[in-house]
Design brief:
With about 475 residues, the chain is α+β, with helices and mostly antiparallel strands. Helices cover about 20% and strands about 40% of the residues. The strands form 6 sheets. It has a 5-stranded mixed β-sheet. Strand 16 and strand 17 form a beta hairpin. The longest helix has about 60 residues.
Length: about 475
Amino acid sequence: DWYLCTNIDSIAVLSCRNVSKLPLQFTLKAMSPFTIEPTMIALQPGEQTIVSVGFDPDYQHNSVSQTVKQRCLVSYPDNPQKEYIDLMGIIEFPNLLFESTVVDFGCVLMDSMRRVGINVSNPGRVPVEYSWRWIKQQGTPGDEGSQDKKAGSSSLQRAPEQIFDILPIHGILEPGRQETVEVSFYAYPGIKASAQANCCVVDGPIYEFQLLGESNSIKYEVMPQFFDCGLQPYDKAVERELCITNSGKVAFDFAADLSRLSRPEIIGAQPMTGKVAAGDKAHIKLKVKAGIPARLRELVLVGIAHFDPVEVQVLIEGTYPILAFNLPRVKDDAFLAAVEQAQISAADGAQDIPAAGTLEPTAMFGASRTMSSSSLQTTNGPARPGSPSKSVTYANMPKTSTENLAATGTGAARPGSGSKSQITAMSGALAAKSRASVAVGASMGAAQTKDRLAQVRLYCLNLEVLKEISALQAVMV
């Protein structure tokens, strides 16, 4: 029967008593860092004894806090039964818990400084006092040219604290508290350095840290720097891609600036900001929309680290659907008559049709004049066969015909010549010829008038379309 275990300076006292009616013998065995004294015990019925259990907290010699668990074996020489006693020892040293023990600054821009924070906490039950000290430092020249190599060679003679720095250099951290230790790297031109720093804890362990750093310059390229989007519908957006390449070893930030646009909604960029790692690329998508039917030249600025912004020009011309007709415009009597008739017939659909006198003939087409229907003036009706020649006015007849007719009518008739019958026959022939000329002229005039009327109607329709387009453009502007 095991009764009590008490701690007395890393020694636990175990009370054992024989509760059986027979004598009892047994042995105790424990593994390091625990010890038991005595290991062989013999007890009479009802007898009790004390066993000492020892624990060595420095068995690993590393001053690290930990919890050790073992089991003590209880065996009987005349009984196959075995029993176990759980043993546990807690080692408490002043310890610190660090987020990382390696600090790699990577490649840093020359003549600049980079800081990295390390979280440190005290997980123990006692306050921890610590301090930092430098062990060694190595540096090699970089690859930035002979001048930088010379600077890198001189950096080999620098003390570790001239290249790296740790703050705070000394401090006390209470149990359960946490703080941030700041490590800095000074990037001298063309240097590649490494150093080792130790964090020494009073009455505790020593923590080793590895510090690495390198300096270099920023190398980048922004392409393309000119976009010609060409003719695009003014209300549709087109996408173009801008590529930023980092050909160096130093990562850098970028930002797109749209403050130089004539209107904010012309160009959109995604993403607006970002970071490009060493040897990597970043892409910016530009959405370009003219918004108005005009030719636009816009400017987008791309900022790279501390350098002057890169100017990216974007050219776009907004267009809209438009229909143009190229028809001849002949300003003659038939055309003016057709215009007047078209104005009357289109009075309901078109309100602002220009007057006939304002229409100008098209310069690219020759003004060909043809005989119109008005050039032939007929009397009350067509001439019947055998009707007198007065059904056609002499003004519209050929000159030779009228002269011959006049000469024949005024000539003196000789006796017995039959001049009366000759005049009658000639008048009938002239009348038939005149009727044929009138019919042909009337047919040609009707066809030309119909064509002119169709052209004028199409012209008036084109005027209305142009007015609507002009009004739409004025609203958008």
